[in-house]
TrEMBL record:
InterPro entries: Homeodomain-like_sf, HTH_AraC, Tscrpt_reg_AraC-type_HTH. GO terms for molecular function: DNA-binding transcription factor activity; sequence-specific DNA binding. Residues 193-296 form the HTH araC/xylS-type domain. This is Transcriptional regulator. The lineage of its organism: Bacteria, Pseudomonadati, Bacteroidota, Flavobacteriia, Flavobacteriales. Pfam families: HTH_18 (PF12833). The keyword Lyase does not apply. The keyword Transcription applies. PROSITE patterns: HTH_ARAC_FAMILY_2 (PS01124). Keywords: DNA-binding, Transcription, Transcription regulation. It comes from Tenacibaculum holothuriorum.
């Protein structure tokens, strides 16, 4: 898989214009830009963060193995070393922007710490941010300010201003994602049901190897780990990991009450390699050891 360590090599690969800053590129989407844009690409990775807003674009764009059809007002966020891939698409009139910056551009800055809090950089493209018309106007206005500063004569304030504007753009994006989770409650409920079904299916297998894994479940549901956990957190107040732990505890309680199996055997049945790890988790969740729980109910 090809990896681009520099911003310049990545832009050259895309057939995009050279950037005015060695670590930052700010490009509005124009018909001329998209005519030169590389039509398709096998999986690649970069050392860059990418923020895009694309509107009125038909075609399939892949991030990893996930396909997504962009429609009006869709934002996507890519973090360094995230797999990026796209297929040839048929373009029509479109607008939006590409902001690409190397991870060194924000190194040792406040944004380098803040950006870790924006979970959507771990989402796949089918989990894109869909903007309302007013939200799109606001995001475009922030971009226009970033673009104006980008083309301004560089001085001692330039980088700090752009970093502040990038943080503002990401803060608004975070806000809009939260709105999207609320507005798509039906989708969230379906995802929660599918998640629970995967847990039940895991323990219905004849041979259990390990405890349920968030990554495996997310892959089977065709979502990213972070999106799965964020969706469940918004819907139920508990992350995917917490849901898995609670499911395991309920299975353990059924076995402690309904069977005469030893604690060690129950631990093995639930996929734990070491019984003491099971006992530690059980006590953390219930306040009692498995033996204490069994004795108190018998």
């Amino acid at each position: 898989m090809q990896h681009f360590k520099s911003l310049s090599s990545y832009l050259e690969y895309l057939n995009f214009p050279k950037s005015e800053h060695p670590l930052l590129s700010v490009l509005p989407i124009t018909p001329e830009l998209m005519k030169s844009f590389k039509e398709s690409s096998p999986p690649i990775t970069t050392d860059c963060y990418i923020i895009t807003l694309k509107t009125v674009l038909k075609g399939n764009i892949n991030y990893g193995r996930t396909k997504y059809d962009f429609t009006n007002g869709a934002m996507a966020f890519v973090s360094p070393r995230q797999i990026l891939q796209w297929d040839k698409y048929t373009e029509i009139e479109q607008k939006g922007f590409f902001i690409t910056f190397h991870e060194d551009f924000i190194r040792s800055t406040v944004l380098s710490k803040n950006i870790k809090n924006y979970g959507f950089f771990s989402y796949t493209t089918n989990e894109a941010l869909h903007l309302s018309p007013k939200e799109e106007q606001l995001v475009q206005a922030v971009f226009d300010t970033i673009e104006a500063e980008y083309h301004n004569n560089q001085d001692q304030f330039s980088k700090d201003i752009i970093l502040s504007l990038l943080d503002t753009l990401l803060t608004f994006s975070d806000r809009f994602y939260n709105r999207q989770f609320i507005n798509r409650q039906e989708v969230s409920n379906i995802l929660l049901d599918k998640f629970k079904a995967q847990l039940r299916l895991f323990y219905s297998e004849s041979k259990i190897t390990g405890v349920p894994n968030i990554e495996n479940i997310a892959n089977k549901l065709s979502v990213s780990q972070r999106y799965l956990s964020d969706t469940l957190k918004k819907e139920t107040g508990k992350s995917a990991k917490e849901h898995i732990n609670l499911f395991i505890i309920e299975k353990a309680k059924d076995k402690l009450i309904g069977t005469s199996e030893t604690v060690s055997q129950i631990a093995y049945d639930l996929g734990f390699e070491y019984p003491q790890h099971f006992s530690k988790m059980f006590k953390k969740q219930t306040g009692k050891s498995p033996k204490e729980y069994r004795v108190n109910l018998n």
